[in-house]
Amino acid sequence: MYRIRSYIHSVRGKLSLVAVICILIPAVLTMLIYNSLTREAVEQQAKENANDSMQLVNGSINNLFQGMLNTANYLTVNSDMKSSFIKMFNADLDFNEKFTATNRIMQQLETLTYIGEKSYITIILTNGETFTNYSKDEVDPLTFQQEPWFNNLKQLSGLQSYWVSTSPTIFPYDKVTSPYQISVARTLRFDSTRIYGYVIVTMLENKFSKILGSLTGSQEVLLVDGDGKILSSPHKNQVNQTFHYSRQMTERDPRAGSSIIKDEDTKLLLTTADLSFNDWHLVATEPYQDAIVNISSIFSRVFLFQIISFIAFLVLLLLLMRQLTKPLIKLGKVASSVQRGNLEVRSSIRGADEIGRLGFLFDQMLDRIKEMISEVSLTQARKRKAELAMLQAQINPHFLFNVLNSIRMKVMRGGDQDSAKMIASLSKLLRMTISRDEDAILLHEEIELLTHYVELMNLRQKEEVQLVVEVDVNCFDILVPRFILQPLVENALIHGLNQSAGIIRIVAQRSDYFLELSVEDDGIGIEKEALDRLRARLTATGMEPVQETERSRGPGLSGIGVTNVAERMRIMFGDAFRITVDSDRGTRIMMHIPVREEGRPHV
């Protein structure tokens, strides 16, 4: 798993991913475009095939209904049959005439029985006479009068027909093969209003279901009435049930024979055909995928071919990329070796392309890093020497403070208040300078340190020195490196004023991004040659800390000179720090210390 993640996050892995995307996206787009262009044609072809199949079924079903209508028309329109029915309706008819009329009617019914599909004919006259082409011993024809639909026949006019939807079969010998039957009824009239009888033509439902189930494949055809009830189906358990897609059938475009509907997540092809005799319909449903199975097979083959092509080109591309990325992998291994600390290793990758140029520049960078490490090591050595010079002036604060407090208490008991005051100032000065670990302190703390220092020096000198502080209010809270003013004031006391009375002035103000901090005295100044030497040392780069022979040897607290202060500041701030020394009537040392935008120096 780790190797897989490493490969994915490597340049080679990313290039492989890009290659896969660049090949996969065109392949997917091609499939989408192909699918979009062929979908409509495939859908249209599926609808046409469904309509053709529906036309075959529709023709056969219409023939059955037409045969039933033809039989009904013959019995109601034929003058010979009509004359026979009227004779049978006449109560004054003698036996011979009645026998002749009955025989004539039965002959006609027998003839109709053998023409076309088998159907059951029932003739009921209003005087109670009945005629059938089936045995009255098996079925009483008057049972039709008990059906709920029979009274509706009186509302018919002229040659109107009443289609009776699927009902249980009344013929006992046919119930096994066909549990249901379908009928059409007509009225027999003397004129346009007076009814003397009824004609009922009945056909078994299995005649229709055989035709509906004759289609091969997954297409299922049903006979449905206007209310959505199934009248005939290849599956007997569906008869008289409500058609599942009645709503979709009513919402369809009546001009379109076929439409595509959805049943949950399955697409179906719905095909309808209206019958011309009534408001009944033929409805066919078929899974859409089955309807387009041949086209889908072609589509699958094309897709498989594209997948094989994609894999072949991908393998070839990965092999080429592996060869091209070998220099990058080697460069990565060299970089890992450098990360572990080996700066002697080199990639030795050369070439006219970008990778060759990168290898050359990487090797150059390693050479430059070695040079910079040497420079940093030298700088750190200089910094340690400067810090060592400060550490040499420090002793254990806790021990020193306890000793000084003991001496101060002993001196106070002896009555020497000046000496006690001197010891107290020294204790405070030491506590502020050598007992704190911070690299930077606030400017007002540094000035407070100077105040104690000058107070201490005034106690040990015959003449007092006046310390004047001129600091802008917005400069007091600026952080500065600790212990940078005392060495400068010490030099002013010992060399500038020569331990005599005078004024030392501390000036601080903010200028743009710099803190301008100066120490000025009104002493004897510095001779020109000595001033030039001092300026040369302060402006020189890579200068060493001042040795003991070059420091002022006066009885000051620290003994660290101006050059050591400049060296510390240059190590901290680099070339952004500047220090200048001017000497005419007295000496003035000006330091330009970089300050961050939020008002804090870079320490």
Automatic annotation (TrEMBL):
Its EC number is 2.7.13.3. It is found in: Cell membrane. Residues 322-374 form the HAMP domain. GO terms for molecular function: kinase activity. Its main location: membrane. The keyword Aminoacyl-tRNA synthetase does not apply. Keywords: ATP-binding, Cell membrane, Kinase, Membrane, Nucleotide-binding, Phosphoprotein, Transferase, Transmembrane, Transmembrane helix, Two-component regulatory system. It catalyses: ATP + protein L-histidine = ADP + protein N-phospho-L-histidine. The chain crosses the membrane at residues 15-34, 302-321. Pfam families: dCache_1, HAMP, HATPase_c, His_kinase. It comes from the Bacteria. CDD domains: HAMP. It is an enzyme of class 2 (transferase). It is a multi-pass membrane protein. Residues 484-597 form the Histidine kinase domain. This is histidine kinase.
